[in-house]
Amino acid sequence: MQTSGGFLDGETFHFSNNLNCFIGGRGTGKSTALQALAYSLGVRDALEEHDNCPGSVVTYCEDTNGILYRFERTRGSPPIVRAKEDQSIKDVPADAFRVEFFAQGDLAEVAKNPLKNPKLLQDFLDRHIAINDLQEQEQQLLQELTQNSAQLVFVRGAIRTGSSVHRSTIQGSVSIVQMGSVLNGQEDGSISILLRDRPHRYDRWLNSLLKNHLRVIRI
Question: d(Cα 83, Cα 93) in Å, to the nearest integer?
Fold first, then answer.
């Protein structure tokens, strides 16, 4: 992490992959350094309201997949984040590199009385759940439901029309069979087969209609 301006002007911090400790007397900048780190990563904005806030902070980090991230934040602006994977560099959202940051007393405050201040508990849970992914999935499902709703109007109309057509056809076939019985003394075999097969044809037609005009939503 490199800082420019403010109390930590010109300082560079190198962090270990393991435990890091800030040791020093009162007023030496321990809390300011941690707040600057959280500020640069877009986790906390409170430092911006204080005079010791750096004018700019640049933080480099790497995730477990070997992707390198560069966070750059100028006072008064949100962080700009770029990720490098293989040879490509691209802009990514700040939460692409997830960070858990708890200031002194944060966890105790959440556990003390979560119902008194539910926002603390909600913020705590949001940091542990991929809420953005769930929101995107929700929006996608809502869009698919809206599309299906519009298609249902067409399908219902087609079913009503198809039912009327098939009903009149079946009734006409029945009349032909009855007429054939009167004339020949027996039903025509081919027409009888048509009558028996008619409901199956209608089912196949209805299934094909639903398959072609309705999307199956999988959750």
Answer: 10
Please give the full DSSP string across 93-133, using - where no structure is assigned: -GGGS------TTHHHHHHH-TTTSHHHHHHHHHTTTTHHH
What span, in angstroms and rounded, lies between the C-alpha atoms of 12 and 2? 5
Tell me the angle at which helices 189-213 and 131-184 cross, rounded to the nearest 10 degrees.
170
Among candidate residues 50, 60, 71, 69, the one with its CA nearest the CA of residue 5: 50
pTM of the model: 0.52
Task: For residue range 205-215, list pLDDT tens digits in order.
Answer: 556 655 555 55
Lookup: tokens for 138? 């929700």
pLDDT digits (tens, 9 = 90+) for 142-168: 888 888 877 777 777 777 776 565 555
- The two structure tokens encoding residue 187: 């039903």
CB within 8 Å of 40: residues ≥ 6 apart: 1, 57, 58, 59, 71, 72, 73, 79
What are 9-39's pLDDT values in tens digits?
889 999 988 899 999 999 888 989 999 999 9
- Count CA within 13 A, CB hemisphere, residue 67: 15
For 215, phi and psi rounded to 5 degrees? -95, 140
Could you tell me if 170 and 202 are in contact, meaning their C-beta atoms sit under 8 angstroms apart?
Answer: no
